[in-house]
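User: I'm writing a tutorial on reading structure tokens. Could you give me a worked example: one chain, its sequence, then its tokens, then a sentence or two explaining what the tokens reveal?
Assistant: Sure. Here is the example chain.
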Amino acid sequence: ADELVTWDAENGLLSWSVSHFSDYLVRSSSTDEPISYQADEGELLFTNNLNTALDAVKNGVTITVYDTVTATDVGTTITGDVIINGPGTINASPATGQRTKTFTIVNGGSLTLDGVTLNVTGTKSASNENEGDGFDVQHGATLTLNNATLTFSDLFIPTVSSRPTNTDSSI
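And here are its predicted structure tokens:
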């Protein structure tokens, strides 16, 4: 075998040998921080707050979700290439308001959901009407699902695909 992993529970030692060079991440399954993301300086950071990770990487980088996380008042604008990896599950809801967006992906930006489950649930107005939108994928932006599950519930509009301004509306 090319890889050999050994766990010495008595001494708390993890070791492995490989026949190739790769980046590895060793994460305790008991950590309270089920999300990792890369800081601008390249440092790998952990958090339990999806909004913190999204704010840090909205211009482009990767977030990995390891467990189930809940994020409320999500309203992220993505301007670069952002990847959200699984194997975890995200239960997200937009901020209160009929047309608030959970994710806005602007022209030139992209969001890839890879191996993650994303459940987007809207909020309720004072009159018990569904509020919030799932995605606003603007002209020139990309939303990609790769072995991912995306579920919408109780939203005003699940996805919005914006037209570029000053264009023929008959297109």
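What the tokens reveal: The longest helix spans residues 50-57. The chain has one helix and 18 strands.
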